[in-house]
Amino acid sequence: MAKKSVEKNEQMEKIVALCKRKGFVFPACEIYGGFANAYSYGPYGAELKNNIKRLWWKKFVDGREDMVGLDGPILLHPKLWEASGHLGGFNDAMIDCKNCKMRYRADNLISEVLGIDLEGKLDEMTKTISEKIKCPNCGKQDWTEARFFNMMFKTEMNGIDEPVYLRPETAGAIFVDFKNVVDSCRVKVPFGIGQIGKAFRNEIVARNFIFRVREFEQMEIEYFISPEAEWEPMFDRWLETQEEFARELGAKPEDLKRYEHPKEKLSHYSRKTVDIEYNFPFGFSELFGLAHRGDFDLSQHQKFSGTNLEYLDQASGKKYLPHVLEPTFGVDRCVLMALSAAYAEEEVGEGDVRTVLKFPPAIAPIKVAVFPLLKNKPELVAKAREIFDDLRGEIKCEFDDNGNVGKRYRRQDEIGTPYCVTVDFDTLETGEVTVRGRDTMQQEKVKVEELKNWVKEKIS
Ligand code: GAP
Fold it and tell me: Which of 41, 201, 278, 328 to mutate to test the pocket of ligand 1 (most atoms within 8 A of CB)?
């Protein structure tokens, strides 16, 4: 099979179109004309996303003795955001074109047009943009001042006088329950708490499909270590494990790279922060992050809540505030990465091109499709139904009897189904089905009674 080369920017358009056409991702509220660059995950997208979250939980929580899970609230005590610094400092700079009213993130506009980094320097951003940059939308050079904008969504809660915020990251809920976890579970430092959940950021510009959205999901870990621990080897191991996870979702090693934040740009409490970037169709951009946050979070929450959050080391009798390594993962970015890594177009015959999503089987939305060779032969349909019913209790399957088998293969290729099983007249005589592999397009015969285990082995 010859691989057809697809230009990177063309690939993004094709992925977005395929996502809508095949039920992975829809623009939200389309019947009302769409809404704020938000998206819904359709039936196959929801499966893909759930498979990614399941794999993460299995690898980082269930699979480790030093990890436990948590599911905290989205609406948290407003004081938490004062303590964490989000109320005062979770700001991006925005600037508007006075002519066409288009709004931009000022630092991004400057780095994209001029290739320089002025993040945080408001006056310099205003000056640079008004002197050197034309509005990419209308071409005029007539700008407002750049100003900071807090990215937390504000809301109200009955019985609470002050504003309440939708969490901008899941991490906060972990820190405020640190003491509860230590007191209720037999955890010993070093240990981590993992959580998956929604986060909300009022991004100035949501863009690149599901890469930057205002409502998204994170999978975060706070890993608590002794302040005296040798943290560098642990930090390196976390980075490697994060990259391993990306590869398990289909990323090729050459499409992953690390970006270490320069010392002068680190938050005052961080000893080291590294982004793991993926080569998305629009270029290398942050997929995951890992930060050494010292004891900043626990000490801030201790200070603002007045609750002692020290950990008692039973062995040495010492009390201390643990330091924290924070590996963080974006679910929506994992979905986009998995789609980008899996997307291929292949020439499979004279002028014939198939579109295929080559997902690793563990995350494929549908693992097996079962077909009767002919729709109008009740004996084939009955046998195919029997096989389908037997598989579907344990394996995510689909039944398809629409169109010819070639068309059904193409439909399954487009949603990334690793195996298609066809029931034909031979099946009724020999008890064997034809199994066709998505990637090789090769067919083999498998005994019906061995099929379930055969598939389980292949997709595990
Ligand atoms: N607690 C640390 C933290 O939240 P972050 O780098 O701001 O760090 C973590 O976010 C991850 O969340 C990112 O690596 C990215 O995968 C995801 N993420 C952040 N903002 C996002 C957005 N607007 N849309 C989609 N994913 C986002």
Answer: 328
CATH match for 366-459 among 3.40.50.970, 3.30.450.30, 3.40.50.300, 3.40.50.800: 3.40.50.800
Q: With b meaning 16 or more CB within 10 Å and e meaning fewer, what string describes 366-376?
A: bbbbbbbbbee
203 lines ligand 1 (CB under 6 A): yes
pLDDT tens track for 184-205: 998 999 999 999 999 999 999 9
Ligand 1 centroid from CA 275, angstroms:
10
Per-residue model confidence as pLDDT tens digits over 334-388: 999 999 999 999 999 888 999 999 999 999 999 999 999 999 999 999 999 999 9
CA of 379 to the centre of ligand 1 (A): 53
Q: Would you say 356 and 413 are in contact if contact means Cβ atoms under 8 Å apart?
A: yes
Which residues touch 150 (CB under 8 Å, ≥6 apart)? Answer: 87, 90, 91, 202
Residue ranges of domains in the chain: 2-67+175-340, 91-150, 366-459
At the topology level of CATH, where does 2-67+175-340 sit?
BirA Bifunctional Protein; domain 2 (3.30.930)
Atom of ligand 1 nearest to the CA of 211: 25
